[in-house]
Each structure stands twice: as C-alpha cells, then as structure tokens.
Amino acid sequence: MGAHIPRLAVTAGEPAGIGAELLIHLAASPLAADLVAITDRALLERAAVRCGMRIELADDDGSPQQQRRPGTLRLRQIPLAVAEVPGQPDPRNAHHVLATLAEAADGCMAGRYDAVVTAPLQKSSINDAGIRFSGHTEFFAERAHADVVMMLASPELRVALATTHLPLAAVSAAITRESLARTLRIVHAELQRKFGLADPRIAVLGLNPHAGENGHLGHEEIDTLIPVLEALRREGMQLLGPLPADTAFVPAQRRHYDAVLAMYHDQALPVLKSEAFDRTVNLTLGLPFIRTSVDHGTALDLAGTGRADPASLLAAATMALALVQRRNETRGVRNE
User: Fold this and answer.
1) Model pTM score
2) Domain 1-146+287-336 adopts which CATH fold?
3) How many other C-beta atoms lie within 10 A of the C-beta of residue 231?
4) Lowest CB count within 10 Å: 65, 108, 155, 204, which one?
5) pLDDT tens digits for 286-323?
6) 13, 74, 143, 152, 309 from 277: Cα distances, Å
C-alpha cells in the first residue's frame, strides 16, 4: 500500500463570518492533504454557492487517502443550531462552534487527525451566549491540559507572546518570574522541535518604553525580566534582552535572533501583520498536537460576498502540513 497523505482537521469558525468560504477556497487548492472539514454540511454548501464554486463533500469515515482531488472535502458533521446570516453572528450557534473545536482537539489527541487548522471565530458571540471564552489558544490549552504559548509566524519573522488576550491594565501583574520562565522554556523547546533549530536565539522585549530605562520608566524589567533571563542563560539558552520594543525589529537586530517574545498582544503583532498579513500563521506552542490558524478575524463585512482572501488559511494549512512532515521525519515515521 502506498503512502497516505496527512489528515488535517479544519474548523470553519464563526458561521456568520468568512470561515466557511475560506474552506471552500482551501478545498479548491492542490494542497496534498486529506482535508476534513469539521462543521455543518449545509453551511459549506451555501458558502460554495456564494463563492461561485463547486465542492464535493463526502462523510469522513477515517480511512487513509493516498491523494486528494482539488475541489473535494471530507466532512465531520457538526450541525448548526440555526442557519447563518452572513455578517450577523448568532449566539445560538456558540455551542456548534465549541463542538467543532472539541472534535478537532480530541480527534488529534486520539490520532484521528494529524493536525488542526482553524478559521476565525467571533469571541463576543460565544460570550454573548453566556459562555466564558477568551480564544482558540486558551480553549485548546484547557482541553489538552497543557501550558501553551501563542506564536505568530511569517516566512521572515516569528513572534511569541508572554500574555495573550488580556486588557492592557492586567498585563504587568500577569507576567511573573514563574510564568515568564515557563513561557521561554516552551518557546525554546518548540523552536527546536517544530522548526529544527538546535540552539534557538530568542529576543525578549521589555514591557516598558525603552525596556524600563534602568528603572526610570518602570521596574518590571529589573524585578522580573532580567532575573529570569539571567537564570535561563545559565541553563544554556541564548536570550537577548530585554530589548526596547521600538528598535527590536529593525533589520540590524533581526540578524541576531530566530524569534521574539513580546510581553503583550499588541506590542509586536502590528509589526508582523503590517509586513506579512496574508502570509502570517497563528500557531499554538506546547500542545500535544499541531494547531495552526489564520492571523485575522471573521471579516463580517465581507461575509457572504465570496470575496474573502484565502491566503492566510492556505498558509496555515501549508504550515500545518510542513510541521506534520517534520514531526514524522524526526520520529522516523512514514505515512503508510
């Protein structure tokens, strides 16, 4: 029997957003992966009509595939509570969205899928349903009982986050010596494991302007960041910083590191997204499975038009496929 292609579970995210339309475009690509859409069949069929494209859907029976024809998707049916209205999220579909994520995570951990790729969801709609929810990253971490780190990566730059979806006023208290050391250890290990970097170099940004200016603009660097960096350097990690965020991304600095650890969500991501919005992939480090995602939101204003750009979802699926192949090579595993 010949080699089979990796199985990627793909969730459609917010039904009223562009996720289902992006899945239709992904299915049309020649990506050499067995794509299993975890969503509602009728949602995908309506999305295909809106995109003016044909899609062939087959219920997923879990059997391996040696190849996939463009325009085909396998389906793990998770029904909607109510039919979507493009651009208008309905909290009644919140449980549908969470069920797709649970199936993707549980399926990866059970070996049914090789990786999960997620389309964007609407966090506010889930919270409006009375369900406390802060994002994909936190959901998968809880589901897998894992300490995780959010990283966004483009071909030119990798940025990990010490904190994720927190109000700015809560960031300083959330960064402790223990949490920072744990985050850096995860980033270091995953750069080795997922990206094949034997001795990764990580640039750590300061929390305050000018990295605290020797305590004149804040004490977090002196009290928390510097002691952690010094301790981890003694363990053998290559760590730069804490660096002032306003100069850390200039070309002269980039030559000296393989990844950046930013202290909060908006400290570094605007740089990355302004440079490579359609080529940036969100991935979750520290999970027992591979998870990648688009780097953008639900684009409710574009939903239903069929004009949403699928480049980021294609980049996410391509990265997931590459990470699966690298993992298998490291383990000496051959898909067969």
Assistant:
1) 0.90
2) Isopropylmalate Dehydrogenase (3.40.718)
3) 13
4) 155
5) 999 999 999 889 999 999 999 999 999 999 999 999 99
6) 19, 28, 29, 11, 11
